Structures are given as C-alpha cells and as structure tokens.
Amino acid sequence: MKWFSTNCLLFFVCITHGGWIHAQETLPEFKVQDLGNQGIKVSWLNPFKNCQQLSIQRSTDSIQFKTILNAQTPNMYDNGFVDKAPTERPLFYRIYYQLAGGKFYFSTIQSTSSNKELASTAHTWKASKFVFCNGRGIPTILLPDARKHLYKLVFKEANGTYIFEINGIKDKETYLDKANFVHTGWFLFDLYEDGNLKEQGKFLVQKDAINR
C-alpha cells in the first residue's frame, strides 16, 4: 500500500497483483431507442454463457439507478425489451450482469437524451483501457509498461477544474479510493507518458453497488 499527498489531499492507493480485483473486462454492447409514446426499447448482446442474473437498470440523472427488469433467460445472447412506464426525459440505462462464481459487472451507460452534451457523455463514451472504473466500480489505473516509462496522471472535474495528480507511477495496477473524488459523477483525466500527453479521457464514479 502507498499514501500520497497532493494539495493537502491524502488518499489511499491499494495495489494488488493478480489479487481480488481484476482489470476491466470487455463488456457486452447494448443500445436504447426512444419510441416516443410507445416507450423505450433496450436491446443487448450478451456473450456471457455463465450469466446467472441480468438486470436492466434505469436512472433519471445517470447516478442513481434502480432495477426495472430481471431477464428470465439471463444467458440468452440476443435479447431486449420495451420499457413502457417512463414519460420523462432524459433517461439513462445500464445493464447489471452477475456470473457464476459471484463476479458482477455493469455496462456503460446509454441515454435517450436529445441534449448533445448529455448524449455525448452517456451514449458515445467508451472506457479507456488505462484509466477506468473496474467491474466492482473501483477507480483503476492499468499501465502494463509502467516500469519502462515515466507516467503522470492529472484528474479533473467534468468542467475541467483541477483535483489532484499522481506522478511517477511505477505499478502496473493501481486502485484508488473513491473518497479521493469527493462525489460521484464524471471525471476527466490527462495521462502523460515521458512528458508527452498519451491520452485524455473520462470515467464515471458511481455509488457502491450491492453484490446480490
């Protein structure tokens, strides 16, 4: 374990190598289609043959989600349904997968919003392979070449306000306490490799999920 201090902000970094937390896996794709008065169509492809539970979750703010459907055949590859209840917009959807053995994952978030900023955040966003929240929702830094290069990460609020940075990362896998980000929501990051900007991206910190 390591402790860092940046601008009087102390935070705990827990490092594991092949331990209890795994790097983010490739998650199934899904999409939403606004059918107007008929409701919202949610469809998905599920490659997990050992899926024991597949739940559709809905939110009005992209932060607080509630389950609206538990699929009767959670391991079916191609499936979908129409959510006929909601009349408000925008709405946000995600899928919860629980596999045999207890592993669980959340999909990325899809939105019905016609607002360009919200749609860009929730509909076309793709997770970085370097900085992301893993299947357990823990902010994760994955740098396979960490010992070959000098890395620096700068974290910012969604509006670009600086929060903190980590310099000289030398571990392949690093996990951050959610408390470092103070609140849930979207955060931006700049990843530098040997002084050069390698990637700019964003990730979503959500409330801890309940492992059912």
Question: How would you explain this protein's 3D organization?
Answer:
With 212 residues, this protein is mainly β. The chain has two domains: 30-122, Immunoglobulin-like, CATH 2.60.40; 128-205, Immunoglobulin-like (Sandwich). The chain contains one helix and 17 strands. The chain has one helix spanning 116-122; strands spanning 2-6, 9-14, 30-34, 40-45, 51-59, 66-70, 78-83, 92-99, 104-106, 110-111, 131-133, 139-142, 151-157, 162-167, 173-176, 185-193, 196-205. The chain has a five-stranded antiparallel beta sheet, with no helix packed on it. Strands 5, 6, 8, 9 and 10 form a five-stranded antiparallel beta sheet that branches. A hairpin with a 5-residue loop joins β3 and β4. The longest helix has 7 residues, at 116-122.
Please give the structural blueprint.
Blueprint: E1 2-6, E2 9-14, E3 30-34, E4 40-45, E5 51-59, E6 66-70, E7 78-83, E8 92-99, E9 104-106, E10 110-111, H1 116-122, E11 131-133, E12 139-142, E13 151-157, E14 162-167, E15 173-176, E16 185-193, E17 196-205
Antiparallel strand pairs: 1-2, 2-15, 3-4, 4-7, 5-6, 5-8, 8-9, 8-10, 11-12, 12-15, 13-14, 13-16, 16-17
Short summary of the structure?
With 212 residues, the chain is mainly beta.
